[in-house]
Structures are given as structure tokens and as C-alpha cells.
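A quick aside before the break. I want you to see a complete sequence-to-structure record at least once, exactly as it would be stored in a machine-readable document. Don't worry about memorizing anything.
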Amino acid sequence: MTTLRAGDGLALRHTAENDWRVAWGQRDWLGPLTARCGAGAAASNSAGDGAADLREANDRDFFGPYSGVEWNGQREGVRSSVRAYPESPLIIFRIECGESALAGLATGSFADPSVVWPHFVPKHRDPADMPAGLSSYGYKY
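That is the input. The structure line, written in C-alpha cells, reads:
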């Protein structure tokens, strides 16, 4: 299991179930995060094919030094990555799609994108890890 640590206690954990969890004072703020790639029945939700598929990516960019991971695999030509910045409470999720991977991805629906990273599933948060009195609101397109 990989844990990426950003500043002020913000962290992202890769779990044995092959999803990610955002922790910041609580172990699970948003439920499992996965990467979604594909349209309709061909869509797959994955965050790499397990820890062996993740490649460490430690460097420095405009925001400062970071530790992260990247992987291929949801679809040929699609690369995903995540970076955590230890000097700031900042996590950046990235997805890159080469031209060859674009064919057949369009869903025709804004509310149903074919490439998503991160794909949040808050209804699957661990209730024991939610702060007391938590409430939320979200728009639906």
C-alpha cells in the first residue's frame, strides 16, 4: 500500500482494494477514488492494476518538490498520475490521453464523461471515519 503525504497532514492512501482514499484529519473524506476510462459498457474503473503497476515519480515542479506515482493501463495511450506536495496541502491529479486513445471515447453526455481521474464515490465512505455532524451537498448536471 502506498501513502502520498502532502503538507498539513493531507494524505492519499492506495488501499489493498486498489482504490485511493483522501485523509485529512479523518482517514476517509471522499470515499474510494478510482480512474474511469471508456464509454458505456466498455468503461473500466481502476487506479492501476495494483501496487506493482504504480511507478514512483519524485521530482520538483512549479509548485515545489513532490512525491507521486503514475501508471498506464486503463486504455492504451492513457496515463494517470498523482502528486503530493509536502510543503503545501496540495495534491494534483493528472490524466494524459494520447491522440491514438481518443477514438471511440466520446459519450455525447457532459454528465457522463468517458475519462475521469479522480472518480469519487462518496456513498462508499467508511462511516467510522467521517467527522461527527458531517453533511454535504453536490450539484448534479
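Two observations worth writing down. The first strand starts at residue 3 and ends at 5. The radius of gyration is 16 Å. We'll return to this after the break.
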